[in-house]
Amino acid sequence: MKIQILGPGCPNCEKLAELTTTAATELGLSFELEKITDLNAIISFGVFSTPALAVDGVVKFVGNVPSVEELKSYLKS
Amino acid sequence: MSLQKEWKPALWILAGFLACFFLPVGMARFDNAVLEAFHLVKWYAREHVLLCLIPAFFIAGAISVFISRGAVMKYLGPGAGKIAAYTVASASGTILAVCSCTVLPLFAGIYRMGAGLGPASAFLYSGPAINVLAIILTGRILGTEMGIARAIGAILFSVIIGLLMEFIFRNEIKEKSAVEMVMPTEEGERSTWQNISYFAALVGILVFANWGKPAESQGVWAAIYGAKWFVTSTFGLILAAQLVFWFKVDWWKMVAIALPTAILAVLYPNQPLFAFSAGVVGLSIVTATANDQTTRWFDSSWGFAKQIIPLLFFGVLIAGALLGRVGHEGLMPSQWVAQAVGGNSPMANFLASFVGVFMYFATLTEVPILQGLIGNGMGKGPALALLLAGPALSLPNMLVIRSVLGTKKTLTFVALVVVMSTMSGMIFGHFFG
Lengths: 77, 433
What we know:
heterodimer; A: alpha+beta; 3 helices; B: 21 helices; about 75% helix
C-alpha cells in the first residue's frame, strides 16, 4: 500500500511521518511512505489543514497528529 | 586525507579559527553587546516566561486542538457570501494561524477550493500577524496600544488588500480545482458555550496574572491590580472545575494540585510565582496523563513550547547583542537606527515595510527585535509597519506563494503589502508617535 503524508514540512508533519512508520511497521504492512510537500499537490487532495494522511490516494484525516493506536485503525480500514 | 571528501569540514574549521583569531573580545562595544544580550535574556526569563508565555502556550494548544477548523472553513468555502468570507478570512487568523506552517495550506485551500483570491489574500496578510501568541507577546512587550494597533491594522488592511487583489485580477478565469474540501472530523463533546467559558477561564488567567501596576495608586486599575492574584486564582478554580466536569479529570487529582498551590499562596503571599509555578506544573502533569482529550491538549501546547522557545531564546539573544536593552546600545549604533527608521516620515515607514517583507522572522522573534529597534530610536509608525509586513511575508514563503498564485499575482500582492503597511504605519505614527 502507498501511504502519503501531506504537509509543507513543519515539525508536526515530521512527527506524523514517524508515528505512521511505527504504526505500519507494527502492523506488519508492506508499505511505501511518500511525503508530499508541494502545496499544489496537497491542495489537489482537497486538504487545507495539515498534516494529513492519505492511503492509496484516499485522505484519512486532516489537521492533527493522532496516536499510534488511532493510526493503526486508519491503516487497517 | 582526500581533499575531495574533507574540504567541507576543513573550510568550517578554518572559518572557526579565523573567527576566534579575530574575536573582538576586549573591544568595549563588543563586550558590552555580549553583556546586553545576556541581560535581555535574563529579563525575558524573569518577566515573561512564567506568567505570559506558558499560559499563552496552553491557550494556543487548546485552540489548535479544540477549535474546529471545519466550522470556520464553512464560511470560506466556494459558496460563501462575499461579506462573510472577507470578515472571516481577515479575522480568523487569531484562531487558525497559531503556527506559521498552518497559514500557507489554508491560504492555498481558500484560493483553490474556497472563496477565491480576495479572501485568500486577506487571510494571508492578517493571519500570521494576529495569531493569539503574536498578539499576546506584542501587547505585553511593546505595549497594549501596539498590540491592538497590530491586530486592528492587520484586519482592516487585509480586507483592503483582498478587495484590491480581487479587483485587479477580476478578468482572470478562476482555475478552481474540482476536488472537495476534506473536513476535519468534528468532536461534539462540549457545547459552544462550554468551549467559550473554558477559553474565557484560560484567557482570564493570562490577563489578570499579567495585570501591570498602574501609575496612579487610586482608581479602578489600581483596585484590579491589588486584587489581581485573587482574580487569577478564581479563574484557576473555574478552570479546575471545568476540567473535572467537562474533561472528566478525576476530582482527587484536581485537589492534589489545588491544595499545594493554595498552601504556597498562603505561605508566600509576596512570591506569587511559587504558587503559580505549582499550578502550572500540576496542570501539566494532570493534562498530560488524564485522558485522550487532555493529553492532546497538553501535547499540542508542549509542541508549541518546544518549537517556539528555542527560536525566541536565540531571537532575544541576537536582538540583545545587536540592539541592546531599552536605553542601552548594542553592536549597532543607535544613530543608524534613528536615521533609517526614526520619526514618522514616509521614507522611514517605507523602509521598515520593505525590509519586513523580505526578511524572515521566526515565529514571535519579531517582537524582541522590534523592542530593540524602538529602544534605539525607531519611530512607532515604522515599528507598526514592520510588524504588519514582517510576519506576513518573507523571501522563502514568497516562493511558495508564487507556486500557488503565479508570478504576476504574487508581485502584486507583495507590492500591496508594502504600500498598505507603509500607510498604516504612517497613520499610527501620526496619532501615537
